[in-house]
């Protein structure tokens, strides 16, 4: 059911989105985007994404191009519904939809899989996402579209970030962005192997800061603070993986926040980049309060009831964020990227 749109305006500010990856938890971002599309009329003109964030970015842009905001909501729903119905997770999970767990047999299978390379247990390189995305996304339309896209991948031989934009965006580039090397073969593009973009940028902020609109909204899924130190081998392994996939975002966000502060403190910004940084406004919707109780293994549970539950949590979080911070869009930053999280409950004035 639609609800009152307090942010409708004939001069609504354009928005750049930076969407973090997180496996099945990316359905939380589905809910965030669904609510932004429903409850605001902020034009979305640039999107950066990694892994599941890249899937959301591409589905969002695809829907906007073909059917406007209603089309984008339909495209996101179609994508996640297709993901959530491809594998019969009823047979490998236990517990309620809001807190599912892998069944003992599934845990045992994963433990065995970790002992082998995907080139051994999946010699043909089968990837169910390939057919699904080919059915869902018109890549030719995206290459011609006016919404700027930046899909992050990691070069498997150097660890370097490679961003695919509209000009070279393909199905292979999107698959590479979501390629976990423990589960899938590296995706070869132009003779070079690529892995999940989350290793090098999760998500990339710099292209949006350089050429996007003045308001940059990041949507993050990985917790930035934990209640206790890990003790068991499994907890330590999960925590280390969280750090690995969040480090690039925290580092880039802190750097961006610092250079924005320096640009604003300068008596006269001399270059075009300095002028853009001086005017940039930053915002953040996180999932810390909603997803912190979920075990990392649930990022592998692409079961539709669970995905829909995550969508609903994303919608609820975004409705609260809009009520608290929505008025800051087009006016001032609501998150200090120099220290992400410190400004969650207050607006920060920006020049």
What does this structure look like?
With 351 residues, the protein is of the alpha/beta class. Helix content is 45%, strand content 13%. It has helices at residues 26-39, 52-86, 104-113, 118-121, 128-136, 139-144, 171-177, 206-211, 233-265, 272-279, 288-291, 304-325, and strands spanning 15-19, 44-50, 93-94, 101-102, 148-155, 161-164, 187-189, 192-196, 215-219, 281-285. The strands form two sheets. Strands 1, 2, 5, 6, 7, 8, 9 and 10 form an eight-stranded mixed beta sheet that branches. Strands 3-4 form a two-stranded antiparallel ribbon. α1 (26-39) links the parallel β1 and β2. The longest helix is centred in the first third of the chain and has 35 residues, at 52-86. The radius of gyration is 20 Å and the shape is globular. The two termini are 38 Å apart.
């Amino acid at each position: 059911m639609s609800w009152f749109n307090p942010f409708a305006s004939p001069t609504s500010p354009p928005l750049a989105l930076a969407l973090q990856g997180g496996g099945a938890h990316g359905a939380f971002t589905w809910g965030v985007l669904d609510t932004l599309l429903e409850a605001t009329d902020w034009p979305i003109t640039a999107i950066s994404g990694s892994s599941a964030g890249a899937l959301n970015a591409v589905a969002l842009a695809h829907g906007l191009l073909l059917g406007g905001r209603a089309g984008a909501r339909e495209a996101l729903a179609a994508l996640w519904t297709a993901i959530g119905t491809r594998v019969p997770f009823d047979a490998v999970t236990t517990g309620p939809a809001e807190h599912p767990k892998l069944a003992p047999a599934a845990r045992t299978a994963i433990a065995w899989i970790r002992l082998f390379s995907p080139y051994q247990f999946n010699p043909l390189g089968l990837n169910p996402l390939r057919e699904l995305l080919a059915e869902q996304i018109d890549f030719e339309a995206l290459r011609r579209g006016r919404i700027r896209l930046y899909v992050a991948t990691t070069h498997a031989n150097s660890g370097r970030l490679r961003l695919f934009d509209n000009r070279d965006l393909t199905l292979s580039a999107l698959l590479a962005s979501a390629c976990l090397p423990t589960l899938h073969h590296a995706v070869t593009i132009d003779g070079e192997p690529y892995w999940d973009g989350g290793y090098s940028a999760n998500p990339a902020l710099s292209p949006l800061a350089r050429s996007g609109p003045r308001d940059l909204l990041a949507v993050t899924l990985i917790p930035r603070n934990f209640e206790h130190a890990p003790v068991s081998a499994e907890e330590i392994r999960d925590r280390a993986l969280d750090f690995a996939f969040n480090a690039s975002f925290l580092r880039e966000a802190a750097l961006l926040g610092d250079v924005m502060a320096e640009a604003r403190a300068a008596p006269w910004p001399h270059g075009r980049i300095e002028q853009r940084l001086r005017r940039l406004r930053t915002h953040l919707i996180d999932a810390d309060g909603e997803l912190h109780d979920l075990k990392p293994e649930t990022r592998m549970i692409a079961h539709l009831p669970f995905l829909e539950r995550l969508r609903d949590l994303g919608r609820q979080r975004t409705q609260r964020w809009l009520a608290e911070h929505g008025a800051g869009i087009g006016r001032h930053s609501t998150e200090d990227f120099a220290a992400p999280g410190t400004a969650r409950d207050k607006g920060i004035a920006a020049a």
